[in-house]
Structures are given as C-alpha cells and as structure tokens.
Amino acid sequence: MPRSTRALTSPSRARYSLFAMVGLMLVILATGALAFNRHDIVPTQGLQDGVPNASATPTATPVPTVTPAPTAMPTPTATSTPSPSPSPRPAKTLLPGVAITVTPHGFEPQELTLSTGHFFLTVENRSSQRGLTLMLNSEQGDSIREFTQPEDALDWIDELQLTAGNYTLTTREHPDWVCHITVTQ
After folding, report:
1. Which residue, 103, 101, 95, is CA-closest to 156?
2. Helix (H) or strand (E) holding 21
3. Does the pLDDT of residue 108 top 80, yes or no?
4. How would you class 104 by CB atoms within 10 Å of its CB: exposed for 0-12, middle for 13-18, buried for 19 or more?
5. How far apart are CA 72 and CA 79, in angstroms?
6. CA 177 to chain centre
7. pTM for this model (two decimals)
8. Could you tell me which residues are beta bridge partners of residue 62?
C-alpha cells in the first residue's frame, strides 16, 4: 500500500476528524440555542408569514417594557427585610446589518446606499489574503475606522453610525479595491 494512502486511512486521523466534527456540531448547537432563547428582540419587518422576506429592510422595535402599577408595600417588621426594588432595564433594539465581501477581485458590492443611523458593518474576507488592513474614510479624507485583520480572522464586524455623505472602504494592500458607500437622510 502506498505511504500516502496509509496516512489518510489511519485510525488516529479518522478519530481526530470525528472528534473535530462532533466539537463543531456542539458549538453550532450551543450558538443556535443561545440565539433561540433571546426573547428580548422582536423583528417587526422582514418576515412574511414567519419566513424572512428578502425585499424588506431589516428593522426592529424593542419589546415594550411594562412597569407594574404601584402597590401598597407592607410595613417592615422586625423579622422581615425589605427587598430591593428592581430598576427598569432599557429596551434592546435590533440593528440592521450590511455585509460586504472582499473577493480576489475587490469588494462586492462596489457601491452601497444606506440611511443614516446605527448599523452593523460586516466585511467578509474571501480574497484568500490574510491580514488585510481595511480603511473606511469620508469623502473629505477623514479616517472613520481602520482595522487590520488578524491572520486567523476572516471577518470584521463593527457597529457604526454614519452621517449623510459619501464614504469609501478600501484596503491598504490593494488601493484599487474600493467600495463607495452613500449615506442618505
């Protein structure tokens, strides 16, 4: 039997692959369970009969918080201790997200139009080049964000709030790779 075939069929390699797949499945299941159990965010658009609607703009409203009506508190006695009153928590909101992919030929899409406000910007590096430096600049040349991806990371996710205007997303390594971002009122 050739040496290369023997190395691929060894029991230890198969066992390692099996453990790796089981570990990956556990991580995926745990992440799904955490996402499923988040009841504090309710999407208001983007669902049609419980199914995501690709044509809808992703927005959400927070779950309304209900404050109980004041009730008469019993007077404390020597044997009881007053319980601390819960402080109201601010409601959470679901922010929209925008995904841009870096390919071996540049950014996809090359142009993007957004509304003002908070959003998540995700840049997915699928260019097969590691350690890219991403730069988000205003049209006046002001640096908004600059991020160098670690060698072991493929994606960059950041929460942004841009005002109306024109912006460019580029890489230091390939200045000809440009994504033009227009933010409108």
Report:
1. 101
2. helix 11-36
3. yes
4. exposed
5. 19
6. 23
7. 0.50
8. 41
